[in-house]
Amino acid sequence: MWFHRSVPPASFPARVRRLVQRVVLGGLLIGFLVVGGTAFRVWQVAREDDRTHADMAVVLGAAQYNGVPSRALEARLEHARRLYDQGVVSYIATTGGRQPGDEYTEGEAGRIWLVEHGVPEDRVVEVGFGTDTLGSIRALADAARARDLKTAVIVSDPWHSLRARTMAEDQGLEAWTSPTRSGPNVQTRETQLYYIRRETFGLLYYHLMKAPVDVFDGITQG
């Protein structure tokens, strides 16, 4: 006599383990795609140099020393000055507040440098507020609305461009980017990879929380 022996169904704990494994693997894959896609966009936008005419060039703040711009800030100011001289923008906005103990704001140091280098004072919009990118962009947006300035070309380091542009657009400005190609933050491949990584997670955090993270803004502001 032949007996048919049925195969017992998989136990409940085994099915749960497989389900958990699939969920974890799926989450890791999605996370990898999100992070990788964001990093690619940071790199891609860093390579853009849009010279479409805008109402203003927005110089994102960086460290200054008693009114003298740091190398990073000076590189941004020089780039914005060239955009003004070439007729790409009608105004230059300098942004950034003061750190504890500072006599000058980053915006003020930027204005002084631009005027000393030939930009008419009435063509410089000083916005000396904000200790991070988002704070500076919000203050800028208020100043721009007061002057009916609606379009902006963002001037910062290449890897900072996407996050700054995203914040500007969220504040109601029509914005594109023309990053500086000089300065200490764009010198070596190791430096570039470091900033791409940091800006990738900074942008992801901003999308999630709509807030800045000091550890990320510290690489570009102050």
Count of DSSP H/I helices: 7
Order of helices and strands: HEEEHEHEHEHEHH
Low-confidence stretches: 218-222
Q: Please summarize the sheet with the most strands.
A: 5 strands, parallel
Mean pLDDT level: 87
Structural class: alpha/beta
- What's the count of strands? 7
> What percent strand?
5-15%
- Spatial shape: elongated
Rg from alpha-carbon coordinates: 24 Å
Share of helix, binned: 40-55%
What separation lies between the terminal Cα atoms? 87 Å
Strand order of the largest sheet: 5-4-1-6-7
Model description:
With 222 residues, this protein is α/β, with parallel strands linked by helices. 50% of the residues lie in helices and 14% in strands. The chain has 7 helices and 7 strands; from the N terminus they run αβββαβαβαβαβαα. The chain has helices spanning 12-46, 71-85, 106-116, 133-146, 161-170, 189-209, 214-217, and strands at 54-59, 64-65, 68-69, 89-95, 124-127, 151-155, 174-177. A 5-stranded parallel β-sheet has the order 5-4-1-6-7, with helices on both faces. It has a two-stranded antiparallel ribbon with strand order 2-3. Strand 2 (64-65) and strand 3 form a beta hairpin. Helix 1 (12-46) packs across helix 6 (189-209). The protein is elongated, with a radius of gyration of 24 Å. The model is unreliable at 218-222 (pLDDT under 50).
